[in-house]
Hints:
The chain is α+β, with helices and mostly antiparallel strands.
Amino acid sequence: MQNVEFRCELRDPEMAMAALLRAGATPLTTLELRDTYFRVPSGVFKKREAADEPVEYVFYDRSDALAPHLCQFTVYDEAQMRLRFGQSDPPTWRVVCKTRVALMRANVRIKLDEIEGLGQFCVFEAAVSRVHTVARCHEAIGELRHILGPTLGEPVTGTYAAMLDALEPQRA
Length: 172
């Protein structure tokens, strides 16, 4: 699967939520998530756990650009992951805990994340399809950035795990 992604700091989550609802975004869920990032030769591989939800394994490859960028990803359930990657998990890199409020506007999933030890972030993931071309996905993200305006902070790059490592490196 493919999407166009953009992530930035979130200065005012309540104002952002109000603006998103006024703009027609539909609330989906609020989750407490635990993402275990694994050390892999390339790309990013993580295990996602949430109460009352099936465990998911996500592998993705994306640039670390500050601007909206393409991301290729695959979501596996436990059985699919074991067939693809083997019976034992790769070495753990870092665990990231977060509270996520998810909304949807057209083909864009909007995530308002509070990351333990890091702060607040906003993520846009515009799903690419025949109808929603890469160019249209960039336009949709641009429109949302405009709608949220001053509630957004600086663009960020890298994974939340890498951002935490920059603050407090773990030993290998």
